[in-house]
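HOLO CASE FILE
Compound: beta-D-glucopyranose
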Amino acid sequence: MKIRLLLAAILTLGSAASALASKERPVIGLSLDTLKEERWQRDRDTIIAEAKKLGAEVIVQSANSDDTRQTRDIESLITRKVDVLLVVPHNGAALGRAMKSAAEAKIPVIAYDRLILNAPIDYYLTFDNVKVGEAQAAYAAARLPKDRAARIVRIYGAPTDNNAKLFKQGQDNILSPLIAAGKIQVVHEDWALDWKPENAKKIMNAAVTKAGKAIDAVVVSNDGTAGGAIQALTEDGLAGKVIVTGQDADLAACQRILRGTQAMTVYKPLKNLATLAARVAVDVAKGKKPSTTATLDNGAKKVPSIFEQVISVDKANLAATVVADGFHKAEQLK
Ligand code: BGC
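Model generated. Tokens follow.
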């Protein structure tokens, strides 16, 4: 009897101790869509570094653009009893089952950069994605010929990514009135599946086949796909003659901007977002309520959100923004 009581006491103590340990040293489960674009590697590294400073641990999974795999990744993080989930969805509308499992296990979910739709998630931390699209289109529109209808190609991102729709919405805000006024003609447009550069290259090839080489600008939604489009333009002897936009300030894109084959990118200070994410995740794991500045309806609820600001970058301000911020070193850009 005594032994049994002692055992029960030890067990109770043990579980109390582990609950305490988990609060003091929270474990963050980070589920990424992909690590292929340079930016996500940087996001991951910054989140891990900031979490470490805060005494937290991060377990990382990357789904390689596969919804089934991402569901499995999240379920395995739940099984490993992470205290909070930080998720960059491949497809914001395809994580219903995983989100249900998280809710059942009472694990809070923070959507990182991309929104998770139709699930009662806890927070959404991102950049102002509509502004990204506006910056891209405004940059191109300001530099188009004014003496005739300008001819542009539009390459959108992955149709499965809610952000891709927001980038297009921002571009539409600027371009639609100009298209309606006959000042701009869209000669070709398409969505680059999974944001793959090779898909953007195919779209650009198709655009030249369909509309010929008289193209003034290609409004592309990120740097990876801009790289693909520029490859196609290079094959046609058009690189450097056509305005190409992008986003992310990837190293290769910044080099292209200096060489003149890409006109602009949108710099998103990832350090701010990733640091914020680690802090919010640790707070949430400890049962605190981090303060937010906005809400966004994801179909299930108004999700408390934070939107970080973005900066339009071209050759003229690359040094004063991306380099000055320590995002890339000046030597890397030579
Ligand atoms: C992100 C971009 C990124 C793209 C492809 C978007 O959701 O906001 O920064 O380039 O996904 O990964």
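CASE NOTES: Residues 37, 39, 113-114, 157, 161, 163, 195, 222, 247-248 surround beta-D-glucopyranose (CB under 6 Å). Confidence is low (pLDDT under 50) at residues 1-21.
CLOSED: yes
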